Amino acid sequence: xxxxxxxxxxxxxxxxxxxxxxxxxxxxxxxxxxxxxxxxxxxxxxxxxxxxxxxxxxxxxxxxxxxxxxxxxxxxxxxxxxxxxxxxxxxxxxxxxxxxxxxxxxxxxxxxxxxxxxxxxxxxxxxxxxxxxxxx
Length: 136
Known about the structure:
Layout: H1 2-17, E1 38-43, E2 48-56, E3 61-66, E4 69-74, E5 78-86, E6 89-96, E7 101-106, E8 111-115, E9 120-124, E10 128-134
Antiparallel strand pairs: 1-2, 1-10, 2-8, 3-4, 5-6, 5-10, 6-7, 8-9
C-alpha cells in the first residue's frame, strides 16, 4: 500500500512540475491615463509601435532628474524623446514643441504603457530608443 501511495505522489509531483505556468507576463490592462496622448515608440530592437493612451503608470508627466532637482515634464510640451543607456542610468534628450533641446536623467525601470490597435503594451524606459508624440 505504501508503494502505491509513493508512486502516486511521485507521478503527481512530476505532473505538477510541468504546470509551472508561463514566465511571460500578459498585459491585459493598462492604467487609464489622466489625458490621451498618441505617439510612435521605437524600442532597442528597432521595433516600432503606434500607441494611444500613452502614460507612465496612468500619469502624463515625464519624471526626470536634472542635477539635484527632480521635475515632471508635461507630455503636452514634448515633441520627441531620445533615450540613451549610460551604465545604470538612462539619459533622455527631450525636444520640446518650441524646439528647445534639454537633457535629463530618467529611471531605467520607469514603465511606459500604451494601447495599440492590436493590444496593450508596456515598456521599461531602458528598453526604449525613441518616442515621438503625435498631435492631431
